[in-house]
Amino acid sequence: EPEVTQTPSHQVTQMGQEVILRCVPISNHLYFYWYRQILGQKVEFLVSFYNNEISEKSEIFDDQFSVERPDGSNFTLKIRSTKLEDSAMYFCASTPSAVGNTEAFFGQGTRLTVV
Amino acid sequence: AQSVSQHNHHVILSEAASLELGCNYSYGGTVNLFWYVQYPGQHLQLLLKYFSGDPLVKGIKGFEAEFIKSKFSFNLRKPSVQWSDTAEYFCAVIPAGAGSYQLTFGKGTKLSVIP
A48, B102: Cβ pair inside 8 Å? Predict the structure, then answer.
C-alpha cells in the first residue's frame, strides 16, 4: 500500500535555529499538506500546496514557515527561526485531488522539540 | 468555521469490552466525516469515512461509526476491543464540496486496552 513517509521521526533543535522537515508524498498525488499537533491540542491545518505553490494557509503559517517541493518527490516544511511554541508533532499528508470526498494519506509525523 | 469535539481524552478498557468514542461537530452545512487512528510510532491511518448514503459505515479492523445528522454526531464503535486497538483516535470533518482540502480535527482520544 502506498505510504507517505516523513523524516526525521524526531528532531531536537535549539531556539532560533532553522529546521527542515521532510516528506515524500504518494507519487501520483497532486496536493500536499502540513498539519501540526501541539501536545494535548488538536491537529491543526498549516498549509496546502498544489502545482508548486501554496493554495491555502492558516493563520499559524506565518513568515517563519515556508514549504517547497525541491524535486519530484520531496515536500519540505522549513521553520526559519524556531520558537519554543513550535514544539509539536508535524504531519505531512497528500491527496489525489482537493475535493472533500477524497481521502488524505498521512505520514507518521515528525516530533519537533525546540529547546 | 467548523469545529470538532471529542468527548473523551483517555479511555481505558479491558479486552473484549465494547467501545464507543464520541465525536460531535459544528457546521451549518453538509460535511464529510472521518475517523483516523494512530498506532504508536505509526502514521495516521484512515479507519472509516462517511460521505453520503447509509449513515452506518463500516471500516477496517471491525470498527463502525454512525452519522446522526440531527445530533451532529459521528461516534465510533467496536463491539469487542483487542489489545492491538491501543492507539489514538481522531475524528475529522471537512465541508462537502469544499474547494480546498482542510480537515478539521478533534483533539483525539487515547485508547488503552488492558489485556
Answer: yes
Q: At which residue does the C-alpha cell 501541539 appear?
A: A38
Question: What is the three-class DSSP state of A103?
Answer: coil
The B residues from 53 to 112 touching A (CB cutoff 8 Å) are: 90, 92, 94-108
Residue B61 to residue B45: CA distance in whole angstroms = 12
Nearest residue on chain A to B43, alpha-carbon basis: A108
User: Both ends of chain B: CA-CA distance in Å?
Assistant: 41
Quickly tell me which residue has 474547494 as its cell: B99
Q: Which of A74-78, A96-100, B4-8, B50-54 has the lowest mean pLDDT?
A: A96-100
pLDDT (0 to 100) of residue A73: 87
What is the b/e burial string over B1-22, where b = at least 16 CB atoms within 10 angstroms of the residue's CB?
Answer: ebebebeeeebebeeeeebebe
Q: What is the pLDDT of residue A42?
A: 86
Give the best residue of A6, A32, A41, A43 to mutate against chain B (max B CB count within 10 A). A43
Query: Which residues does B89 contact at the CB level (< 8 Å), separation at least 6?
Result: B6, B21, B35, B36, B37, B38, B47, B76, B108, B109, B110, B111
Taking the mean position of all CA atoms in its chain, how far away is CA B102? Answer: 17
pLDDT beyond 90 at B64 = yes
**Any A CB within 8 A of B4 CB:** yes
